[in-house]
Amino acid sequence: MLSSLPNLLTISRIAAIPVLVFLMWGATWQGYLGALFVYAVAAATDYLDGYLARAQGTVSRLGIFLDPVADKLMVATVIIMLVANRDVAGLHLLAATIILLREITVSGLREFLATAQVSLPVSQLAKWKTAMQLAALGLLIAWRPLAHWLPALPVREAGLVALWLAAILTLVTGWDYLRTGIRHMVAAR
User: Fold this and answer.
1) How confident is the model at residue 189 (pLDDT cuts 50, 70, 90)?
2) SS (H, E, C) the chain
3) Closest CA to 21 of 64, 69, 67, 82
4) Minimal CB count within 10 Å: which of 94, 138, 150, 153?
5) What domains appear along the chain, each with residue ranges and CATH number?
């Protein structure tokens, strides 16, 4: 199953992470332009891998595991690079921290519940949260190249607003997952 197209797309998203870091490292508009291209392709594979797996009937346990891991690794890496380059700074660090803490907490919760053979399916709101995160991070990557060509365009500000919206959705969905997890933990006593 490792060689199925959906799994290869997911793995390519993980493989793109060092490329994103390299491109964003110097915080130049040219590097960010390249990072935006890589990020956009990676974000598209996030939708495409799941769609293809369902359409082809090739949903695999490996894909079910790798897809959210790839998402979380990419989101965390981009946030770290944006913070390191001061694209996300000041009070906006709170939004970035909320997103990172939720992703780690939900991953741990899923791992714990898996040992109890309890599935924690992805909610529709969590899918919207992921879309908002992808959009926010895309805008925050895009602002440097766009500021080079269109300096009056408030792309960074739009990205920061979207980051806060993603953080709010992150809190809501994280609470939903935590509440469900706690219910299973208490019932298992």
Assistant:
1) low
2) CCCCHHHHHHHHHHHHHHHHHHHHCCCCHHHHHHHHHHHHHHHHHHHHHHHHHHHHCCCCHHHHHHHHHHHHHHHHHHHHHHHHCCCCCCCHHHHHHHHHHHHHHHHHHHHHHHHCCCCCCCCHHHHHHHHHHHHHHHHHHHHHHHHHHCCCCCHHHHHHHHHHHHHHHHHHHHHHHHHHHHHHHHHCC
3) 82
4) 150
5) 5-187 (1.20.120.1760)
Is residue 126 a contact partner of residue 109, using CB atoms and an 8 Å limit? Answer: no
What would the pLDDT profile of 148-180 be if each residue is shown by its tens digit?
898 888 999 999 999 999 999 999 998 988 888
**Residue/partner pairs of 147-152 with CB below 8 Å, 24 or more apart:** 147/29, 148/29
> Token pair for residue 24?
């964003």
Distance CA(185)–CA(179), nearest Å, equals 10
Q: Could you read off the pLDDT of 13-34 as tens digits, one per residue?
A: 999 999 999 999 999 999 999 9
Q: What is the spatial distance between Cα 101 and Cα 87, in angstroms, rounded to a whole number? A: 19
Contact criterion met (CB below 8 Å) for 35 and 23:
yes
